[in-house]
Amino acid sequence: MSANTNIRRVKSSDLELKDRLVSIQRVTKVTKGGRTFSFSAIVVVGNENGIVGYGLGKASEVTTAISKGIEDAKKNLVKVPVYKGTIPHEQLAKYGGARVFIKPASHGTGVKAGGAMRAVLESVGVTDVLAKSKGSSNPHNLVKATVMALLELRDAQNIAEHRGVSLNKVFNG
Question: I need a surface site. Which of 6, 10, 147, 161 has the fewest CB within 10 A?
Fold first, then answer.
């Protein structure tokens, strides 16, 4: 994440959050006594109005892993600028081997994104966006890269505050 990005954290207490299961995997720990199986789940939660978070849960049962992931996601909520159902500008982000590219789309386009990216974008409340995943298709890294891309988005209000000028001057030069 770049140094100048200020993370906009949000409390989950008074929000109505919806959760989406992105991926669940059976993981194995090999010990002297044999193999121990458990489950790893990555979950995305959001209020579909600009707030999103992701979490990882691991447990010996699937339902426990999912609920742990939801609790972890509620601790990591961030605010994202969504303007008329799309994003303010295009953005590229990278996490590990996963690279994501998100681009605003006109009304009626829908969410053109695959798997893990789709879950994040729908949870944040984006209804029209074009997205491309390049590189690794690892769902953990894709979710993290997508959230990073969303965090690097800046809306007009944010730019006006950063420049110390009025909102009208941002558009009219």
Answer: 6
One-letter amino acid of 132:
K
Of 140, 136, 111, nearest to 123 by C-alpha is 111
CA distances from 37 to 11, 28, 34 (A): 34, 5, 10
Strand residue runs (E) in 7-95 = 18-31, 34-46, 51-59, 78-79, 91-95
β-partners of residue 10 are none
| Amino acid 42: pLDDT | 96
Residue 55 token pair: 């979490």
pLDDT in tens, 8-50: 676 666 678 899 999 999 999 999 999 999 999 999 999 988 8
Q: The whole model's pTM is what?
A: 0.85
